[in-house]
Amino acid sequence: MPETIRALTHEIIACRRCPRLAAWREEVALDPPARYRGQTYWARPVPGFGDPRARLLVVGLAPAAHGGNRTGRAFTGDRSGEWLYRALYRAGFANKAESTHANDGLRLTGAYIAAVVRCAPPDNKPTPQERDNCIGYLERELALLKNVTVVVALGSFAWNGFLRASGERARPKFGHGAREEIGRWTLLGTYHPSQQNTFTGKLTEVMLDAVFAEARRLV
């Protein structure tokens, strides 16, 4: 039978291909910071989230240890997610401007969120081998999300990960506001909405909104 997003989601959740990442995601769940003490962590790979008929795909690096690894939803429960979902809401891709937990009623319309690596890595730095172990999931999502025409890459790791998953041999340079035509997709780049970028002003909400406004125009 043809593969479905639902079947792929179940496969991703059960994955243990990377022993270091499997151990790390479970270790942080056993000793969370005080603000999350007593919460039950997801502590498994985080699957994609959104509209299976999406025309926009957002690609990130990996779940945050106390964000997606805690809540079980991509970019949920951390500062990066606060910025991302506000931008998606303002661009008309989300019904709410925040994502707090997996059952909060948030819905994406016309958009889907995925990542290059599905487990939280120590220091947000997966190894090349861990990236390669996981990239097949993104390849399969690209095949299943047949309506996607625009991809927004959050940071250079996501930009290069998408290029690898797409089969593109050329390696156009990442930059905020960069745009490349890659096969059937238009690839847009933005700085990652990490605290390192948002606290320093390297990325502002105006800058992020401009990228998603362009994505909305293109779809």
Structural features, described:
By secondary structure, this protein is an alpha/beta fold. It has one domain: Uracil-DNA Glycosylase, subunit E (3-Layer(aba) Sandwich), CATH 3.40.470. Helices cover 39% and strands 12% of the residues. The chain has 8 helices and 6 strands. A 6-stranded mixed sheet has the order 1-3-2-4-6-5, sandwiched between helices. Strand 5 and strand 6 form a beta hairpin. It is globular, with a radius of gyration of 16 Å. The mean pLDDT is 97.
Helix/strand class = alpha/beta
Structure summary, number of beta strands: 6
CATH architecture: 3-Layer(aba) Sandwich
Low-confidence stretches: none
CATH superfamily: Uracil-DNA glycosylase-like domain
- Main beta sheet, described? 6 strands, mixed
Number of domains: 1
CATH topology: Uracil-DNA Glycosylase, subunit E
The 3D shape can be described as globular
**CATH classification, class level:** Alpha Beta
Q: How do the strands line up in the largest sheet?
A: 1-3-2-4-6-5
CA gyration radius, whole angstroms: 16 Å
Q: Provide mean pLDDT, rounded.
A: 97
Quaternary structure state of the chains depicted: single chain
Q: Helicity range of the residues?
A: 25-40%
The proportion of strand residues reads 5-15%
**What is the helix tally?**
8
Distance between the termini: 30 Å
Instruction: Give, in order, the helices and strands.
Output: HHEEHHEHEHEEHH
